[in-house]
Amino acid sequence: MARRRAAVEPWLPLSWLQGDALDTGLPSHRFDGAVMAYGLRNLADPGAGLIELRRLLRPGARAGVLDFNRMGEGSLAARFQRFYLRRLVVTVAAQVGLREHYAYLEASLQQFPKGEVQERLARDAGFAAASHRPLAAGQMGALLLTA
Ligand SMILES: C[S@@+](CC[C@H](N)C(=O)[O-])C[C@H]1O[C@@H](n2cnc3c(N)ncnc32)[C@H](O)[C@@H]1O
């Protein structure tokens, strides 16, 4: 899908590589930046994913990690999140035959570290700076990193 979309903009200098985000096999300290969207939550070990990400980046490089934001239980925002994941996202996905691609979302979010824990994991992984910022009224979150 990404390859097909990129073909629409052939001037983008892209090359494609499929691999394990926990063990990419890419050289250390080679990259000036990285982004990950809705990936960290899906890794078996998000802390290990951040260690691998840090290994790839040059000192001073920046990275941004976007994902759902896990909120305090019982807050209005958390209840709203549960509502739209169950009643909107999964329901609509089921109608277009994609139920199994979205049904796991709520459970994966319950295992996902909260923003402040992501910041700590990133600092433990060796990032010089890590700041988690809520987006979309707290429903999503961006982990902003400097190597
Ligand atoms: C919600 S999808 C997000 C995909 C893409 N980033 C996007 O925004 O469309 C999460 C993906 O992470 C992949 N994934 C889980 N663990 C992985 C790993 N260790 N290495 C690479 N991909 C992994 C899953 O196979 C799944 O395709």
Q: Briefly, what is this?
A:
With 147 residues, this protein is of the alpha+beta class. The chain is built from six helices and four strands, in the order αβαβααααββ. Strands 1-2-4-3 form a four-stranded mixed sheet.
Q: Could you explain the architecture of this structure?
A:
The protein has 147 residues and is α+β, with helices and mostly antiparallel strands. The model has no long low-confidence stretch (mean pLDDT 94). Helix 2 links the parallel strand 1 (31-37) and strand 2 (57-68). It folds into two domains: 31-70 and 114-147, 3-Layer(aba) Sandwich (Rossmann fold); 72-111. Helix 2 packs across helix 6 (115-124). The protein is 39% helix and 22% strand. It is built from six helices and four strands, in the order αβαβααααββ. Strands 1-2-4-3 form a four-stranded mixed sheet. The structure holds S-adenosylmethionine. The site of S-adenosylmethionine (SAM) has 8 residues, from loops.
* Tally of DSSP β-strands: 4
Mean pLDDT: 94
Q: In order across it, which strands form the biggest sheet? A: 1-2-4-3
CATH superfamily of the largest domain: Vaccinia Virus protein VP39
Pairing-aware structural class of the strands and helices?
alpha+beta
Helix content: 25-40%
Number of helices: 6
User: Major sheet, described briefly?
Assistant: 4 strands, mixed
Number of domains: 2
In whole angstroms, the N-to-C terminal distance is 30 Å
Radius of gyration: 17 Å
Task: Return the CATH topology of the largest domain.
Answer: Rossmann fold
Keywords: Methyltransferase, Transferase
Pfam families: Ubie_methyltran (PF01209)
Enzyme class: transferase
EC number: 2.1.1.-
